[in-house]
């Protein structure tokens, strides 16, 4: 029972990072139907920015987090403007290849500029372990969970309560109709990229703190896992992405806990395929049937 | 077979033969050294993989992102069988075994997942390929993460060349037949295809299985040519680079796939001297081509001797 | 004459709504039968059940002695039922010729080995298909556009290609879902001739959904009227025009053919 709660806590910490990333995938996909392959690399940019400001300016965690979110938001919007906007009316597979190109560019560009080696992320917060009913809880785990939950609530408020959020939902349902009622889809899409990238940037700083190490290719695997999480949750659905993220995090930790860590990735994909076969649009996705 | 058809077939055969002789001459006079031969073989193997993937993506319209998984099956079948049967016969037996396993796995993966649409299918096939890779990574017979080495060199560039020709003929003949029309009809409109009596699952599966079997052939060739394989050779990024060849050449154009595989193969070799910068340039080239030529280099264009001859005759009149 | 198609007590429920409710009808071989009714009356839903696209909640459908429910659309097509769609569904990036040949997929058999090795049997089969395609192209006046992509053709021609493609499956019965929608009077007149030829030349039984009452009244031998999922009338065109319930629900005062 003991290990169960311990592992659940670990799984939730990891899962919250996946959830933060999955939210970006799901928002972008919901609005322009693009698998933003470069999203995991935006998360890497966030981690590198955190590393840079903490090391150079010795700022505290909160400043690092917020500034990383601003920087990645700008990066995300820039990527959208330069690489994806010219392809708005192209086949979706073309946009996907471009996204892969952007991903390669960011990974290799960072390797070229700063070296491909792994770095130690500075300890902006000293780790303390607390013993709660026999479970070891670190302050960093609490920080990750609290920060992610706060960000998710904020996101939900932005989407549900603000004018921009309403516009986002409108464009996701029908971009042409949204344009007819005076919404500028370019602004909305740009905003969506900014929002999603900010969450990824936050995830990058948090993972740096949690795992202590960062490198230019760190975004690849979590990026794909987070996309899987978004698909499992039902792509396009915000709560779905959050649930999917936590689910994948828990699943990975669980496979490790039962001694099958070599198969943890396979387990994620088996669950993915089983869920898609049973629920072709994920847990919370809407099944839109084509009209005959 | 009419006279015109004989003429077209003869023209294709002459082209293939000319290519073979050309490479042979270049090898003899020393223009093609080991380095360039390596590049040519890599291009050839990529052509086999990408034309098969183009049947799945371009013709049947099913977005598969797991092609490297089937390549892995072929490569490991060959590595394992030739380790105890290191002869040319052993190689061809292993290739057949690889194809058979690939076909079985493709059916197992395809039946549940091919009902999914678009990106969902992409992510499911990607997951399936990763499962194959993780399994290979943990089996004893495949020597786990260390991979397999000292695979006997049972195929040189001539074998690869002949296999490129054979698989291309097979895939193009499939594409230009009743079967090709059926899978293209599904790509265009699944509901209408069903209404005219084309069973979507059956035909999608046919294209998927065909693509998987050619990928296994490519895997076998890769194993005996490179002589060392590890599970990381068959990851998601390898499936992605095959997808890039297909899209860059033009989805649905076999000619385009050939050209894209050659362009990227040469580009990769030329850029090798640039070190880390190589992938940066590669990535930029990819983005720029897609932004300025979204339908790929050739779009849906297909080179055809039949059309060429008809045009020539028309211009003579 | 025996009935080719019988529908007895068919109901389709979507959620709490009966889109089609307890409908029974029959079509004899060689007839042209129209199904009319206001928008949302359940006409297309009924067509979709007849062609296997959706399954009825209850009731029976028999075509040439075989039960239709439970079969997939592709299987239903092989039984000899073809259809066109309300919003044209062509294989847009394929040529007109390939559109027709794709519809022959189940009619002639090519095996994998003869295909990839181009054995003589492949060429024989292709020959049969090509000849048949040429006949259809001529019959539907499509020879000039045979090698053009179907998606690039004008609207009226696309309708014709869609009907030709349905005929290419060699059906016994063809369902046309609002074939005259969006057509001008000349195109509609040509369509009338075409549908009559389906009956006389191709010996097909025709099921027609159409809002153009002039067309329906001049073509159909019998008419069924659907309203709110229920059959509210049936008979010859003359009878339908006299039927007060039908007139009240749909035809209104002003329509006389």
What does the model show?
- The complex is a heterotrimer of chains A (292), B (317) and C (257).
- Chain A is mostly helical and 292 residues long.
- Chain A has one domain.
- The mean pLDDT of chain A is 90.
- Chain A has helices spanning 2-32, 39-57, 61-84, 92-114, 139-161, 163-173, 175-180, 185-211, 220-233, 238-257, 264-278; strands spanning 119-120, 129-132, 135-138, 213-214.
- In chain A, strands 1-4 form a two-stranded antiparallel sheet. Chain A has a two-stranded antiparallel sheet with strand order 2-3.
- The longest helix of chain A has 31 residues, at 2-32.
- Chain A has eleven helices and four strands.
- The longest helix of chain B is centred in the C-terminal third of the chain and has 27 residues, at 200-226.
- Chain B folds into two domains: 1-32; 33-316, ABC transporter involved in vitamin B12 uptake, BtuC, CATH 1.10.3470.
- Chain B has 317 residues and is mostly helical.
- The model of chain B has no long low-confidence stretch (mean pLDDT 91).
- In chain B, helix 2 runs antiparallel to helix 11 (254-270), helix 4 (88-113) packs antiparallel against helix 9 and helix 7 (178-188) packs across helix 9.
- Chain C is of the alpha/beta class and 257 residues long.
- Chain C has two domains: 1-78 and 205-257, Rossmann fold, CATH 3.40.50; 81-170, 3-Layer(aba) Sandwich (Rossmann fold), CATH 3.40.50.300.
- Chain C contains ten helices and ten strands.
- Chain C has helices at 43-50, 73-79, 96-102, 112-117, 120-139, 155-168, 185-200, 213-219, 237-242, 244-251; strands at residues 3-14, 17-28, 32-36, 58-63, 66-67, 81-83, 173-177, 205-209, 222-227, 230-235.
- In chain C, the strands form two sheets. In chain C, strands 6-7-8-3-9-10 form a six-stranded mixed sheet, sandwiched between helices. Chain C has a four-stranded antiparallel sheet with strand order 2-1-4-5, with helices on one face.
- In chain C, helix 3 (96-102) runs parallel beside helix 6 (155-168).
- The model of chain C is unreliable at 253-257 (pLDDT under 50).
- At the A-B interface, helix 4, helix 9 and helix 11 of A face helix 5, helix 10 and helix 12 of B.
Give the secondary structure arrangement, pairings included.
The complex is a heterotrimer of chains A (292), B (317) and C (257).
Chain A (H helix, E strand, L loop, with lengths): L1 H31 L6 H19 L3 H24 L7 H23 L4 E2 L8 E4 L2 E4 H23 L1 H11 L1 H6 L4 H27 L1 E2 L5 H14 L4 H20 L6 H15 L14
Antiparallel strand pairs in A: 1-4, 2-3
Chain B lengths: L2 H26 L5 H26 L7 H18 L3 H26 L4 H21 L18 H19 L2 H11 L1 H6 L4 H27 L9 H14 L4 H17 L6 H16 L12 H12 L1
Helix pairs in contact in B: 2-6, 2-9, 2-10, 2-11, 3-4, 3-5, 3-9, 4-9, 6-9, 7-9, 10-11
Chain C lengths: L2 E12 L2 E12 L3 E5 L6 H8 L7 E6 L2 E2 L5 H7 L1 E3 L12 H7 L9 H6 L2 H20 L15 H14 L4 E5 L7 H16 L4 E5 L3 H7 L2 E6 L2 E6 L1 H6 L1 H8 L6
Parallel strand pairs in C: 3-8, 3-9, 6-7, 7-8
Antiparallel strand pairs in C: 1-2, 1-4, 4-5, 9-10
Helix pairs in contact in C: 3-6
């Amino acid at each position: 029972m003991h290990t169960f709660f311990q592992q659940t806590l670990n799984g939730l910490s990891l899962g919250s990072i996946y959830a933060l990333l999955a939210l970006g995938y799901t928002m972008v996909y919901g609005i322009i139907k693009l698998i933003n392959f470069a999203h995991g690399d935006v998360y890497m940019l966030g981690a590198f920015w955190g590393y840079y400001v903490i090391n150079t300016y010795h700022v505290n965690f909160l400043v690092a987090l917020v500034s990383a979110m601003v920087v990645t938001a700008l990066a995300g919007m820039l990527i959208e403007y330069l690489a994806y906007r010219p392809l708005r009316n192209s086949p979706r597979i073309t946009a996907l290849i471009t996204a892969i190109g952007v991903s390669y560019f960011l990974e290799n560009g960072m390797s070229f500029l700063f070296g491909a080696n792994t770095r130690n992320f500075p300890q902006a917060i000293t780790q303390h372990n607390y013993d709660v009913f026999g479970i070891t809880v670190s302050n960093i785990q609490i920080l990750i969970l609290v920060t992610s939950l706060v960000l998710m609530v904020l996101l939900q408020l932005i989407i549900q309560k603000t004018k921009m959020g309403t516009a986002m939902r409108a464009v996701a349902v029908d971009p042409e109709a949204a344009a007819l009622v005076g919404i500028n889809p370019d602004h909305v899409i740009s905003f969506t990229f900014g929002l999603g990238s900010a969450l990824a940037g936050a995830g990058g700083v948090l993972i740096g703190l949690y795992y202590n190490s960062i490198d230019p290719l760190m975004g690849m695997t979590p990026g794909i896992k987070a996309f899987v999480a978004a698909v499992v949750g039902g792509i396009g659905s915000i709560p779905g992405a959050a649930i999917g993220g936590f689910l994948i995090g828990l699943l990975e930790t669980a496979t490790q806990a039962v001694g099958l860590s070599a198969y943890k990735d396979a387990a994620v994909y088996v669950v993915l395929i089983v869920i898609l076969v049973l629920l072709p649009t994920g847990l919370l996705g809407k099944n839109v049937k084509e009209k005959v | 077979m009419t006279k015109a058809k004989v003429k077209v077939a003869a023209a294709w055969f002459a082209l293939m033969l000319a290519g073979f002789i050309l490479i042979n001459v270049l090898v003899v006079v020393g223009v093609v050294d080991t380095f360039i031969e390596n590049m040519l073989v890599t291009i050839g193997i990529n052509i086999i993989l990408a034309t098969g993937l183009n049947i799945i993506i371009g013709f049947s319209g099913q977005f598969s992102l797991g092609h490297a998984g089937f390549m892995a099956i072929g490569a490991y079948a060959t590595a394992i069988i030739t380790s105890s049967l290191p002869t040319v016969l052993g190689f061809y037996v292993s290739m057949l075994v690889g194809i058979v396993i690939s076909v079985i796995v493709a059916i197992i993966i395809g039946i549940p997942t091919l009902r999914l649409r678009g990106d969902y299918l992409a992510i499911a096939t990607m997951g399936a390929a990763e499962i194959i890779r993780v399994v290979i990574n943990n089996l004893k017979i495949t020597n786990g993460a260390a991979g397999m080495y000292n695979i006997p060199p049972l195929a040189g560039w001539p074998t690869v060349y002949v296999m490129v020709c054979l698989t291309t003929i097979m895939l193009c003949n499939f594409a230009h037949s009743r079967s090709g029309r059926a899978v293209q009809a599904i790509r265009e409109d699944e509901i209408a295809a069903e209404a005219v009596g084309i069973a979507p699952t059956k035909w999608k599966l046919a294209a998927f299985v065909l693509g998987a079997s050619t990928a296994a052939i490519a895997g076998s060739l890769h194993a005996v040519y490179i002589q060392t394989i590890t599970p990381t050779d068959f990851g998601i990024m390898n499936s992605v680079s095959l997808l890039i060849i297909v899209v860059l050449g033009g989805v649905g154009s076999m000619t385009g796939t050939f050209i894209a595989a050659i362009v990227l193969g040469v580009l990769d070799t030329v850029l090798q001297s640039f070190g880390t910068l190589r992938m940066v340039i590669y990535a930029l080239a990819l983005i720029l081509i897609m932004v300025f030529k979204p339908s790929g280099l050739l779009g849906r264009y297909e080179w055809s001797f039949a059309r060429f001859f008809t045009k020539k005759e028309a211009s003579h009149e | 004459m025996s009935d080719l198609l019988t529908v007895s007590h068919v109901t389709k429920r979507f959620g709490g709504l009966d889109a089609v409710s307890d409908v029974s009808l029959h079509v004899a071989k060689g007839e042209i039968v129209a199904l009319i009714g206001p928008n949302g009356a359940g006409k297309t839903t009924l067509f979709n059940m007849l062609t296997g696209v959706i399954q009825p909640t209850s009731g029976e459908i028999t075509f040439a002695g075989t039960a239709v429910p439970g079969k997939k659309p592709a299987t239903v097509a092989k039984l000899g039922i073809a259809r066109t769609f309300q919003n044209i569904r062509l294989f847009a990036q394929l040529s007109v010729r390939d559109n027709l040949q794709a519809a022959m997929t189940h009619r002639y058999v090519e095996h994998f080995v003869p295909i990839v090795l181009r054995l003589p049997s492949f060429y024989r089969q292709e020959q049969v298909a090509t000849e048949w395609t040429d006949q259809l192209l001529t019959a539907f006046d499509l020879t000039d556009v045979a090698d053009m992509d179907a998606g690039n053709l004008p609207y009226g021609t696309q309708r014709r290609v869609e009907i030709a493609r349905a005929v290419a499956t060699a059906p016994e019965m063809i369902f046309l879902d609002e074939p005259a929608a969006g057509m001008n009077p000349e195109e509609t007149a040509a369509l009338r001739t075409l549908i009559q030829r389906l009956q006389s030349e191709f010996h097909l039984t025709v099921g027609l959904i159409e809002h153009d009452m002039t067309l329906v009244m001049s073509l159909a031998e019998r008419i069924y009227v659907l309203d709110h999922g229920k059959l509210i009338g049936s008979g010859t065109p003359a009878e339908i025009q006299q039927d007060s319930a039908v007139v009240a629900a749909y035809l209104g005062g002003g329509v006389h053919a």
